[in-house]
Design goal:
13 strands; Ribosomal_uL15_CS; Ribosomal Protein L15, Chain: K, domain 2; single chain; 2 domains; four-stranded antiparallel sheet; 20% strand; ribonucleoprotein; 235 residues; alpha/beta; four-stranded parallel sheet; 50S ribosomal protein L15
């Protein structure tokens, strides 16, 4: 059981393909190293989904030769303890926002979540919005990185904002390519009078790309970084 963003989820040691055509279908995370033993993920977003989770849990038990035992009702409660005591014992961690002395900064380990392809729905729950925002890079000019410098200060082609979807980039660029506004105009994917670019999430991304744009939807960022690419904000 785990949280994906603000959603409670449960990962099962089941083959997601066995449930694709059933009401119990979940997300297939078989390509994610972290979920290689429990590749079927179900989001517990309603009482009905909780019932589905109970059924799937029973399927895991049956597959492993486990039998349902007798249920014994037991009253259970924990003694109250102050927050500082829980922190001292390492049972909880305190997080604060802003530049506060002693604050603990935690970064998600993206390397464990990278996969060869990802859909919008998969990306949406893979990491939180706040984690994804931290992974957006800021383009700055460097003498030893002319391609980044060019992305940081693109030529002004017009005063309109162009929009391109992730699946369009996946279809027109190769793995490892750098995507810029100039290249999109050259390929005819946005109009010639576009001077600013926003990237939106749609469909599937199946390759790592370095995407340079003025703005991204948060799910587009997730799709880019979770396939091993980079989202570079040029504004």
């Amino acid at each position: 059981m785990l949280f994906k963003g603000r959603k409670l989820c449960m990962a099962f040691a089941l083959n997601p393909k066995d449930y694709e055509e059933t009401k119990y279908r979940g997300m297939d995370l078989s390509e994610v190293k972290r979920f290689e033993k429990t590749p079927m993920l179900l989001k517990l977003t309603s009482p009905r989904k909780v019932k589905y989770a109970k059924y799937l849990f029973e399927q895991v038990a049956l597959a492993n030769g486990l039998e349902k035992g007798e249920v014994t009702a037991t009253e259970f409660s924990l003694p109250y303890r102050e927050t500082e005591q829980l922190v001292a014992e390492g049972l909880v961690r305190k997080f604060v926002s802003g530049d506060v002395e002693g604050a603990e900064e935690v970064q998600v380990d993206i390397s464990e979540l990278i996969r060869s392809s990802i859909t919008v729905n998969e990306a949406h729950v893979a990491i939180s919005d706040s984690e994804a925002e931290k992974l957006v890079e800021k383009a700055t000019p460097h003498d030893d990185a002319p391609e980044v410098a060019a992305a940081a200060a693109p030529a002004v082609y017009g005063n309109k904002r162009g929009i391109v979807n992730i699946d369009t980039l996946s279809a027109h660029f190769d793995a490892g390519d750098e995507v810029t506004l100039a290249q999109l105009i050259q390929k005819g994917l946005v109009q010639k009078n576009v001077g600013r670019l926003k990237v939106l999430a749609r469909g599937t991304l199946d390759k790592p790309l370095t995407v340079c744009a003025d703005d991204f939807s948060i799910d587009a960022v997730k799709m880019i970084v979770l396939t091993g690419g980079k989202a570079v904000r040029t504004d």
